[in-house]
Write a structure and sequence with these properties.
Layout: H1 2-66
Length: about 70
Amino acid sequence: MRILAILMILTLSSCMVSQKTFDDKCCKMEAQITELESKARGMEMKEQLLRQAIHDLQTKNDTINNQ
C-alpha cells in the first residue's frame, strides 16, 4: 500500500513540474506573439504612411505636369 501511495505522489509531482514548465513556455510564447503583433501593427502603419506619401507625391507631380 505504501508503494502505491509513493508512486501516486511521484506521478502527481512529476505532472506538476511538467505543468509549470508548460505554463512557462506558454507565457514566453504569448509574450513573443504580443511582440510580433505589435511589430506587425507598426509595419502596417509605416506601409500606410508610405502609400499616402507616394499618393501625395503623384498628385503633386500630376499638378506640376498639367500646368
